[in-house]
Amino acid sequence: MLVQQLANGVFLGAVYALFAIGYTLIFGVLDILNLAHAAIFMLAAFVALSLAGLGVPLVLAFALALVVAGFLGVLLDRVAFAPLRRRNAGTLVPLISSIGAAIIMQGVARGIWGPDEQRFPANALSTAEIHIGSLTVGALDVVILAIALVLMGVLSYVLRSTALGRSIRAVAADRVAAALLGVDIERTIALTFFIASALGGAAGILIGLQYNSVSLDMGARIELKGLAIIILGGMGSVTGAVIGAFLLGAVETLSVAYISSSYRDAIAFGVMFLILVLRPTGLFGKRALRAA
Amino acid sequence: MRVKSVFCAALFLAFGSSVALGAGPMTGKTVKVGVIADVTGSAGAYGNSQKNAYELAGDDLKAGLIDAAGASLTFDVQDAASDPNQVVNLVQKFTTDGSALMIGPTLSSEAKKADPIAVAKNLTILATSNTAQGITTMGSCVFRDSLSEEQVVPQMLVKMEKAWKVKTAAIIYGDDDQFTKTDFDIFSASLKADNIDVVDIKTFHKGDVDFKAQLTAIGEKKPDLLVIGALIEEGVKIATQAKQLGFKGHFAGGNGLNSPKFIDLAGPAGDGVIVGAAYYLGDTRGGNKAFVERYSKKFGKAPDQFAAQAYAAAQVVAAAIKGGATNSGQFCSFFGNMKPLMTVLGPVSFMSSRDVRADSAILEVSKGAFVPFK
Amino acid sequence: MFEFFAHHSKLIDQIGINALLALSLSISLRAGSLALAQAAFMGIAAYVSSIGAVHLGWNLGGAALAGALAAALVAAVLALPIGRLRGVFLAIATIGFGEITRIIAINWPITGGAEGLSGIPNDANTLSIYGTLAVVGFAIFLFGRTKLALAVAATREDESAARGVGIDVAGVRMGTLVAGAIVAGLAGALYAHSNFFITPGDFGFGRMEQVLVMCVIGGVTSSLGAVLGALLMTVLPELVRFLHDYREVSSGAILLGIILFSPAGIAGLWQRRT
Question: Rounded to an integer, what distance in angstroms lies between the CA atom of residue C122 and that of residue C13?
Fold first, then answer.
């Protein structure tokens, strides 16, 4: 049973990690908490669902929805963050504007797709199961874990070894200095939003597929844990967020199995609280992205 | 809102004679019913079904399918956005704007904040989706047409035990939600009464999507029966994931799973789930056939139990008006003495506790539909 | 006038309670600490005061004071481990604390769990709510004229400089957290005593988010701003009720519009001119 539970924890961790990596990118580059990330996550899943419903092959629907999510992210930045950035409004005010933007997106989604939970067309999914000894694993779980790991790898590579990555890191480290060095700040920020939101969208679609469920509150219910993960990981640290995500998945699963399902979230937040008390700037320090 | 009712009144004056309101003894009488529903927010899926039902009831009044004896009956549906503060504000509105009756709110936890305000102003309440204990005891004119699970679960377990010789059971339920916690209380009491051994109890939180940790632990104990105390969003995923993890026992759930949505979402994984419920989609009594057809046509989906219980409330209200009730006191005494009335839920009347007396349905999910069990 | 009051007294009471909550948050934000535990403090006090009233027959005054005291005690204990945390790290640690508190409330039999606690005497009224608000507002006003207020502002603006001039930064932070908890506690007790019934869900992350929005919309550290922010955000959903299906979208758009128009909040509107 322990092996099965650990596997459950790993797959749950992959889901959290997917949600968190896009989230942490914006957090690291702009020092803002973007509470509309969860809304884009949800919208992308609905867009992919509608496309799949129209008969578009799932892979194509996935790709198109990512592009939509990316542009939504850019739009979000233009509307809700850029005007505040120009006026140096600090970190708390953009948090509120992102809440406003999230309420609007939620309302629009309710208007378009209605209030009910929906699922992808039945034939779009593999329900195969893999049995290894007493261990049962869904094929879809494995695919999602693989996609999550690939996306994390690609993001790390982009940040570390490409010109875009260097620009993003320069903007994250010091916006004024980056501008002096010739980095186009607004373009870099727009691209950051595009990538982060597309990643968030990918997470929404994959989670929608994995649990066979797309709903208006799918973002809200993962938002708080996602927030906990990225902050626990350290300001903008992709590695930290991933480790935080798998840690959370493991803590939740094992506390249900061996301690108490009723106190699962209390234990998870308790562990997070303790780690923060011991490491007040998160697992990977405050400026991790800048060193990447 | 004001604008809308003025507009409605104008429409009524202009077309009143030509619209098939059916002249009757109550022609010229106006009754406004205030409805509180969580159309948006976390309970939006349930409140929306309720709103749809009153919209359809409005159409059906005009079409003469619901007979209010010629009176102009309107349902003023207001969204409380799943926010208890808005619920409270709406009750206060309905106690002061000439509403003859209040229907709602959607959730029991909202009702416990809202109902006392209406009771203090002698506004009669008809709840359609509050299943917790202590709702109708809040006032001598607080009624509900929603069957409590207590009235369904015991007979359902007896039937299941007979069919399958159930000896052991495990329960998984949401411990942070009043509805699902009530489910747990009732199921565990009934299991105990039937000498079915509860081998494991696990909980989840509203909005969870991953239940594998709980279900793996439950699977180890190999219970004959898994009781699911959940609403459909979580219930579908529990049934699906349990089957994925190789759980071989039977499944049972309460009212929360009784929705066509359960079948849409669960697909083949839903098969074999037994649900104790207050409404059967395939019922042909009380105009249910027409209700299901018209609802499906108007909203593109079949009605769920929330919609049916709301529509039944509209039928009950119309019957009360036919019986001469136009104000809060008259509604209260009509409901209290009501002879069984045929509605989409079957025959409905109220007990002295003001809880509903209605048929329960024990349903099985089979090949993508709810069918009566055995 | 009287009729308006009779039709909207519940809304008026909610504004007063929310104003207390927004004030309570602005107290800890004044020292620059983003401690987001107001909903938890409110819940602790709501439960202590309600259980006292239901089981021990406490009157409103005693119940509210006991609730506020309990919230203050918890805040004082909480202040110790979170002393080194700043900014978002402090925010998430305190939000986590709030979630832990809510889950304990769900599982502890004396609270009634998810089925809630009913039978709470409905003895808080507009007079007691606004009386409390006036006292709290006056206390904040008096405090603003003391030297300690300067120490609080210095801690916010530059912590190391404040330490350099001999200000006990840790003490200031703990003091503002406890003071905020007392005010949130009073709000929680009044909330419970004007709603008949409470559940742990009343004091979750959603509530915390609402309070934060009120406070920032008001202008973060301005007391009058916090009160006006609470007024606006409480009334907004009722003001846009006539928009029916577009209510949600327009509420979001209005919130976004206000914060973009005046990033310094409502208080920024008059502060900019002076």
Answer: 12
- Output the CA–CA distances (angstroms, integers) from residue B308 to A10, A189, B230, B311, C195, in the order listed: 42, 51, 19, 5, 30
Residue ranges with strand state E in chain B? 30-37, 72-79, 101-103, 125-127, 142-144, 168-174, 197-204, 225-229, 250-253, 273-277, 341-343, 346-350, 356-357, 361-366, 369-372
Decide if domain B2-147+283-357 falls under CATH 3.40.30.10. Answer: no
Burial class (CB in 10 A: 0-12, 13-18, 19+), B357: middle
Establish if A12 touches chain B: CB-CB under 8 angstroms: yes
From the CB of residue C258, how many other CB atoms can be counted at a distance below 10 Å?
Answer: 21
| Contact criterion met (CB below 8 Å) for A75 and A101 | no
Q: Which residue has the tokens 């979000």?
A: A76
Q: Is the Cβ of A157 closer than 8 Å to some Cβ of chain B?
A: no
Mean pLDDT lowest among A87-91, A192-196, B29-33, B150-154: A87-91
pLDDT average, residue stretch B144-171: 91
What proportion of chain A, given as a percentage, has pLDDT over 70? 96
Gap from C257 CA to chain B (nearest CA, Å): 21
Parent domain of A157:
2-291
CA distances C106 to A262, B174, B181, C198, Å, are 9, 11, 10, 11
> Does residue C10 belong to the interface with chain B, where contact is any CB pair within 8 Å?
yes
pLDDT in tens, B159-168: 898 899 999 9
Burial of A75 (0-12, 13-18, 19+ CB in 10 A): middle
Residues of chain C with C-beta less than 8 angstroms from the C-beta of A108: 249
- All CATH 3.40.50.2300 domain ranges of chain B, comma separated, are 2-147+283-357, 150-277
Tell me the C-alpha distance between A155 and A164, whole Å. 11
Q: What are phi and psi of A127, to 5 degrees?
A: -110, 15
Kindly give, in sequence order, each residue whose CB lies less than 8 Å from that of residue B273, ignoring residues fewer than 6 positions away: B228, B239, B251, B252, B253, B257, B262, B266, B364, B365
pTM of the model: 0.93
Each residue of B26-69: pLDDT tens digit? 888 999 999 999 999 989 999 999 999 999 999 999 999 999 99
Q: Give yes or no for a contact between B72 and B12, defined as CB atoms under 8 angstroms apart.
A: yes
Confidence band (pLDDT; 50, 70, 90) for C93?
very high
Beta strands in chain C (DSSP E): none
What average pLDDT does the structure give for chain B? 91
Q: What is the identity of the amino acid at A32?
A: I
The shortest C-alpha distance from B233 to chain A (Å) reads 7
pLDDT tens track for B173-229: 999 998 899 999 999 999 999 999 999 999 999 989 999 999 999 999 999 999 999
- Chain C residues within 8 A of B92 when measuring between CB atoms: 7-11
Distance from CA of C118 to the nearest CA of A (A): 22
In angstroms, the Cα distances linking B326 to B30, B51, B52, C5 are 8, 22, 24, 27
- Structure confidence by residue, pLDDT tens digits, A60-83: 999 999 999 999 999 999 999 999
Q: Which of A227, A273, A279 to mutate to test the interface with C (most CBs of C within 10 A)?
A: A273
Q: Cβ contacts (< 8 Å) between C116 and chain B: which residues?
A: 109, 112, 178
Q: Which amino acid is at B211?
A: F
Query: Do B134 and C8 make contact, defined as CB atoms within 8 angstroms?
Result: no
Predicted confidence band at A289 (pLDDT cuts at 50, 70, 90)?
Answer: very low
Taking the Cβ of residue B368 and every Cβ of chain A, the question of whether any pair is shorter than 8 Å is answered with no
Over pLDDT 90: what percentage of chain B?
76
pLDDT band at C137 (very low <50, low <70, confident <90, very high): very high
Q: Which of B42, B76, B87, B89 to mutate to test the interface with C (most CBs of C within 10 A)?
A: B89
Number of structural domains (chain A) is 1
CATH class of B150-277: alpha beta
